[in-house]
Design goal:
The chain has 754 residues and is of the alpha/beta class. It contains 31 helices and 14 strands. The chain has 3 domains: 390 residues, no CATH class; 147 residues, 2-Layer Sandwich (Transcription Regulator spoIIAA), CATH 3.30.750; 150 residues, Jelly Rolls.
């Protein structure tokens, strides 16, 4: 428990610091009493009206228990928990449903069954809170669609508004009884409640003080009794005509029936409310976490949502056993508590004590509470939600989201809260599918010109790869892939295969590194690629595909193994490397336009200078250049797994690879190696360190027996001194090599940016 549990007690810091706690508690209790009365009148209406006094006692006892238990266990001192209007709406719907189911039974059985249903709802809600908090699932609120939340709150506002009208008219309002409201004998009861609700709405909106509502309520009650006095209407007559909530049975308000009376409960009627109870649990969880998030914004610090769940869970279990409806963190009262400086758990304890006094001694006053005031207060709560979620959200939401809100609200008003939430989730899912299917699943489009593998090819090989760059076609996918988004990808591939400006690709690579997930329909969509490739000899390559998806896709593709060729690679680089090898093998061993390419891979030096030396009579100049350069080069035969260059060592020279293969590795902070590039015959290594005079940026290790030609730093200086023309031509070759690498990087960057 936080140290502030007792830190603000009167004896600790003096009575002066206890004044905000006392003020907050008193104001909260003054506000909660009429709200509790109104909630009770909302639930215990119609055939349940004779049990209104017990209902009021139950609601007030629940408020006392919720405030006490949550004050002990909540995560932020000063936060206040009370019964909530959304809970009252659903419980009222349940009570009306139970009343219909057992309409032929004795009234006391109906009351006991409704009371048992309320207890079950609160206990189940509380246990759910505890379980969610124990498994640290407080962030579930992030996954609830915003229109569904708004629609439920708008629907709750509608039900509260209608329920408030019903309280003042002493009528259980539904579709079949709406016409009765417009009878003259009913209008005179609910019309003042409607005016009072509008007065409260604009009054509270204009006066930001938390005392505005109780002040207006007090003034209206005074005016009401002044009217009774002037008109000569006695208290008994006002009660008989339904102007007041009383009369109540004698004694204190909170009276639970004996435990053995549970045997009389119609449990089958309660079981039929399982859907409503589920709806209540879900909505209570959402509302609790939303209110907690609101408190976070007020106090500007994170609140332990999981502890709030467990605290509210314990409080609801305790409140359930006194017959109360579910409750949780009350955002308005908590904000008032924080702003008045009552940051102490004593605030909840004091609210409990005030409510206890009302339960024991307040019945004679509560039965004098005007019925129109109770109804008007509920109408005011409903009107507040309707204005916020129907009127004000018109400019804050997209049209489709707003339509979802209106449909949920209408469904709740016509059918039930559960039906509203159900259809809301369904509509939200449909909208999500439609909107997400419009998101481009293709993040980047690359080809063999804009993306090379990390294999450092010889200049001749690079020339071939550029010439046939459109053979390799890469689609980097993104997001969550499902049937709605794969169709656009299939259309894109189809368009590329039939684009007359390009040769059809031989290799289609689909990279899943940025994909967050897939469903089964997406797997079948990739199988449809078979139909696109029947006209063209194309291989489909899948990269970065999670093992579970790879296994499923492989199984599906094997059904069509005679029509399609596919492969899987763990990453895009290895896939592109394989495609490049296949392309080079095919080009170098066929007659496909190779007459213009002079290929000689037997001499690494010749291969190195073949393309990088750019003279019109390149072969003759190349031979002359090589002959002169060999005077400064040292031929070295190096075994496999030998470190030629070590990361961080000073530069000693550069190497031209004649045969074999080397790999450049970067040693990361955790000492694990990262393969940067693989180089073969005709490539050069170590040139940047030599020319920039910096330590080696990576280690270079032979992967197989390798023959190199080494140009030391001393020999390069000697060449520059003894044969400056040769040195100048060599520097041109290196410059072209570095420029070629830069061009390749720029092509990749432009492709990714475009």
């Amino acid at each position: 428990m936080n140290n502030s549990t007792v830190g603000n007690a009167p004896g600790s810091h003096g009575f002066q610091k206890f004044i905000p706690i006392l003020t907050t508690s008193l104001v909260t209790a003054i506000l909660e009493v009429p709200v509790g009365i109104s909630f009770a009148a909302l639930i215990f209406t119609g055939v349940l009206s004779p049990y209104l006094s017990s209902g009021i006692g139950i609601l007030l006892a629940g408020a006392a228990m919720l405030s006490l238990v949550s004050a002990i266990f909540n995560s932020y001192p000063g936060s206040i928990s009370l019964p909530q209007d959304t809970s009252a709406v659903i419980i009222a719907t349940m009570a009306a449903s139970i009343a219909v189911l057992i309409s032929d039974g004795p009234p006391e059985i109906l009351f006991l069954t409704v009371l048992a249903a309320i207890t079950c709802s609160s206990v189940i809600t509380g246990l759910t809170f505890v379980v969610l908090g124990s498994f640290r699932l407080g962030r579930l609120i992030r996954y609830i669609p915003y229109p569904v939340i708004g629609g439920f709150l708008a629907g709750s506002g509608l039900l509260l508004f209608i329920g408030g009208i019903g309280i003042s008219a002493n009528l259980s309002v539904n579709i079949t009884s709406i016409s009765e409201l417009f009878q003259s004998s009913r209008i005179i009861f609910w019309l003042p409640a409607l005016f009072f609700a509008i007065l409260l709405y604009y009054g509270v909106k204009h006066f930001s003080s938390p005392l505005a509502l109780p002040t207006m309520l007090f003034v209206v009650i005074i005016l009401f009794f002044s009217y009774l006095l002037i008109s000569g209407t006695t208290i008994e007559e006002a009660m008989q005509t339904g102007l007041l909530l009383g009369p109540f049975p004698e004694g204190n308000l909170w009276k639970l029936p004996p435990f053995e009376m549970l045997l009389e409960v119609d449990w089958s009627a309660i079981l039929q409310q399982a859907g409503q109870i589920t709806s209540l649990v879900v909505i209570s969880t959402i509302s609790l976490l939303l209110n907690a998030s609101g408190v976070e914004l007020i106090v500007r610090k994170d609140i332990d949502l999981n502890r709030e769940l467990k605290s509210a869970g314990l409080a609801n279990v305790a409140a359930g056993f006194v017959g109360s409806i579910p409750g949780y963190l009350a955002l308005t009262h908590t904000a008032f508590s924080i702003r008045t400086g009552a940051k102490s758990r004593w605030a909840g304890v004091m609210i409990f004590l005030f409510m206890l006094l009302v339960l024991l001694f307040g019945a004679p006053l509560i039965e004098l509470f005007p019925r129109f005031a109770a109804g008007g207060l509920v109408c005011f709560l409903g009107l507040t939600l309707l204005m916020e979620w129907v009127v004000q959200t018109w400019t804050r939401m997209s049209h489709w989201d707003y339509i979802v809100v209106i449909i949920i609200m209408a469904t709740m008003g016509i059918f039930s809260p559960l039906a509203g939430v159900g259809i809301g989730l369904m509509l939200a899912a449909i909208l999500f599918i439609i909107q997400y299917s419009r998101v481009n699943v293709i993040r980047h489009v690359l080809d063999g010109k804009s993306y090379f593998s990390i294999i450092e090819r010889s200049p001749i090989e690079k020339s071939i790869l550029r010439k046939y760059s459109d053979w390799i076609y890469i689609l980097e996918l993104q997001g969550f892939i499902f049937f709605g988004s794969t169709q656009s990808m299939l259309d894109f591939v189809h368009k590329r295969l039939h684009d007359p400006a390009y040769h059809p690709p031989r290799y289609l690579l689909l990279d899943f590194r940025q994909v967050t997930g897939m469903d089964g329909s997406a797997i079948m969509s990739f199988v449809k690629l078979r139909t696109l490739t029947l006209e063209h000899p194309i291989s489909i390559i899948f990269t970065n595909l999670p093992p579970e998806y790879q296994s499923q896709l492989d199984s599906e593709l094997r059904i069509y193994s005679q029509d399609i060729h596919w492969r899987f690679f763990r990453d895009l680089d290895h896939a592109v490397e394989w495609c490049e090898d296949q392309l080079l093998t095919e080009v170098l061993h066929t007659e496909i336009d190779t007459e213009s390419i002079t290929v000689n891979l037997r001499d690494g030096l010749a291969d190195f200078f073949q393309t990088n030396y750019g003279s019109t009579d390149a072969p003759n100049d190349q031979t002359f250049l090589i002959k002169q350069l060999t005077n400064y080069l040292e031929r070295r035969e190096i075994p496999a797994n030998y470190t030629i260059i070590r990361q961080g060592d000073p530069s000693v020279g550069l190497y031209i690879i004649e045969s074999g293969q080397v790999a450049a590795h970067l040693t990361r902070r955790d000492d694990s190696p990262l393969r940067l590039r693989v180089m073969g015959p005709g490539t050069v290594i170590g040139e940047l360190s030599l020319y920039l005079n910096i330590p080696a940026t990576a280690s270079v290790i032979t992967t197989r027996p390798t023959v190199t030609h080494f140009l030391s730093q001393e020999n390069m200086k000697a060449m520059e001194s003894e044969n400056p023309d040769l040195a100048n031509e060599f520097h041109k070759v290196i410059l072209r090599l570095v420029g070629d690498r830069l061009r390749t990087s720029n092509n990749t960057i432009q492709a990714l940016a475009g």
